[in-house]
Amino acid sequence: MSEILLVLSAGAVAGALNAAGGGGTFVALPALVAAGQSPVTANATSTVALVPGAVAGAWVYRRELAPVGAASTRALTTASAAGGVLGAALLLALPSESFDAAVPWLLALATVLLAFGRPLSGALSAAYGGRAGLGPRAVVACQFLLALYGGYFGGAVGIMMLALWSIGLHIDTAAGNPMRVTQVAAVYLGATALFLVASDVLSAPLVLTALLVGAVAGGLGGAHLVRRLPAGLLRGVVLSTAVAMTVLYFLRA
Question: Is the pTM of this model over 0.85?
Answer without folding.
Answer: no
